[in-house]
Amino acid sequence: PSSRGKHVGTISTRRFVSLVAVVAILGLLHFYRPETSSLWFDTFYDWLHVPVFAFVAISLFHALGQWRSNVNKAILAFGATLVLAVLSEAAQIPTSRDASWADIISNITGAAIGLLAIPTMTPRVRLKVVSRVIAFVLLVISCVPLMRVSAAYVERNGVFPVIYNSNWPTREEFVTQRGMAIDFRNLYPDWRNYRTLVVDIEVESAEPFPITIRVHDKQHLRGSQPRSDRFVRSFVLDSGRGVIEILLSEIEDGPETRSLDLSRVDGLVLYSAEEPGRHSVRLHQIGLE
Known about the structure:
This protein is α+β, with helices and mostly antiparallel strands and 289 residues long. The chain is built from 8 helices and 9 strands.
């Protein structure tokens, strides 16, 4: 009796550390966002919600102390984590970061993975095996977007210095077409070992076709992105197939007040002010030489 009384109205060190860990990890997730940004990094950062909230759920489970039923304790820990998951996204609404239902789903998935994987969840061996198998399956499912983007990056790096080829399937991670514009993003960033950007393009209609080529680097994305801070050049193409060649030294000199960083190229855009449907144009290939 006397030993029990020593713990009445107190919080054990283990529970206190668990609560502090929850506050610290949620604060880090909410306030810290590295400046480095890319499709892969953004996808990885979004996936981090899964292990982070697995850790949060496990910490809350331990912070609840001794219960007669660990299953009931896990249910309460999951409910508390669900509330924190929603609140952590709602707290982003007043900031420049976007709240996301996808992040909430990742948070909940992470909580489920963490609680299902806890060894003391149930004393029954069969239930332990089943719960851990479910946790592993959920973990694999949560990794699918990251694996897909990683595979796209491996493919991108493997074909470089070719940036685009009309005979290949279009990867949505790297190419977007909007009206009379084709936007190539998340490019292989280091162009320093090459001399020329080559665009193989064919105008199938009889009339000349005006086209503009734009290249920007990572630094360009940090500011207001004025036209004067990137490389922009316009051409008028005659009917038939032709090649546009642009020296990378000219692209480097594109911004008015600085040099474009050829080690951190971020985007390439081909666009025209012509109305869609007026011309028939086929883009065969884009690459560096």
